[in-house]
Amino acid sequence: MFASIRRLQASPAYTQLMGAIKLDLKQAMLAKNKIEKNTIRSVLSSIKNSEIDGGKQTEFDLYKLFTKMVKQRIDSEQLYTSQDRLDLAEVEAQESKIIKKYLESLPVAPETEIAAKAGKWVAELFEKDPNVALKDIMKQVTDELALGWNTFPAAIRATIPQLHKKFAGK
């Protein structure tokens, strides 16, 4: 599929954030901010690789990508700190801060909000049927439910097992 056609399938939030990232790159280049420029280029490269791999172009996919990138930077920062490479650790910390800025600008529900909504939802399911099985709950996690909560199904499914244990153990 051609790149221009794929971009037409992108969500409005995706398109808006891409424009903001490219504008930030231009500003970082004009300001000669090397760390920010390289970080934004890395972000754009990762997004482009995701597009090439045929990934969906939604804010939820960007959320997954940015979360992964932040985690990588934090892990690298801890590794550099443990090896007394504070100069490199500082660069990684600045990069993770820049990526977090984009992560927080996405219109995706944070993990705490997802956990709270999932807790209420699972509690309601247990009120209806105290012996509801975990697999039955997982089957009810649909794309429509996730869109209603402004998240993606995998984020909801990640919280369900511990909630099931909590309510099944009562």
Explain what the structure shows.
The protein has helices spanning 3-8, 12-30, 34-52, 59-82, 86-105, 111-128, 134-139, 143-148, 153-168. It is an all-alpha fold and 170 residues long. The relative contact order is 0.09. The protein has two domains: 3-105, Uncharacterised protein YqeY/AIM41, N-terminal domain (Hypothetical Protein Yqey, Chain: A, domain1), CATH 1.10.1510; 111-168, no CATH class. The chain contains nine helices and no strands. 79% of the residues lie in helices and 0% in strands. The model is unreliable at 1-6 (pLDDT under 50). Helix 2 runs antiparallel to helix 3, helix 4 packs antiparallel against helix 5 (86-105) and helix 6 (111-128) packs across helix 9. The protein is globular.
Short description:
This protein has 170 residues and is an all-alpha fold. It has 9 helices and no strands.
